[in-house]
Write a structure and sequence with these properties.
About 0% of the residues lie in helices and about 45% in strands. The protein is mostly beta strands. Strand 5 and strand 6 form a beta hairpin.
C-alpha cells in the first residue's frame, strides 16, 4: 500500500490486516491502510491483478479466506459483526450476521 517515505496523507495508523493465498497461487490482501478499504489481488511474483473496493461492504477485514471462486471476509468492526462472501469481482454473494453471545 506504499513505501516508507512516500507522502500518503490518507494513511491510517495501521496497515493491511490480513491476506490469503488462493488455490491458483495468487494472493489477496485486505488493505485497511487507505479509505475506502480495498482488496488487492496479486500474482505470486508481485504483479497487481486488480482491486475491489470494500466501501459499504466491510468496515475492517479481520480474517480472510480466498477460495477457488470467492473470498470470505470476517468483519468484526461493523456495528453487527458479519461474515461476507464476495465474488472474485467484488459482488456480495452472501452476508451472514454473527449474533451476540447470550
Amino acid at each position: 500500500s506504499g513505501r516508507e517515505g512516500d507522502p500518503r496523507p490518507d494513511w491510517k495508523a495501521w496497515g493491511a490486516e490480513t491476506f490469503s493465498v488462493a488455490p491458483d497461487g495468487t494472493f489477496w490482501i485486505a488493505d485497511t491502510a487507505v479509505w475506502p478499504n480495498r482488496m488487492l489481488h496479486y500474482r505470486a511474483k508481485g504483479e497487481l491483478l486488480g482491486r475491489i473496493s470494500l466501501e459499504g461492504t466491510v468496515v475492517y477485514s479481520y480474517a480472510m479466506v480466498a477460495a477457488k471462486d470467492s473470498l470470505w471476509l470476517l468483519d468484526i468492526s461493523a456495528a453487527q459483526p458479519h461474515l461476507v462472501q464476495l465474488s472474485l469481482e467484488g459482488a456480495v454473494l452472501s452476508n451472514l450476521e454473527i449474533p451476540a453471545r447470550s
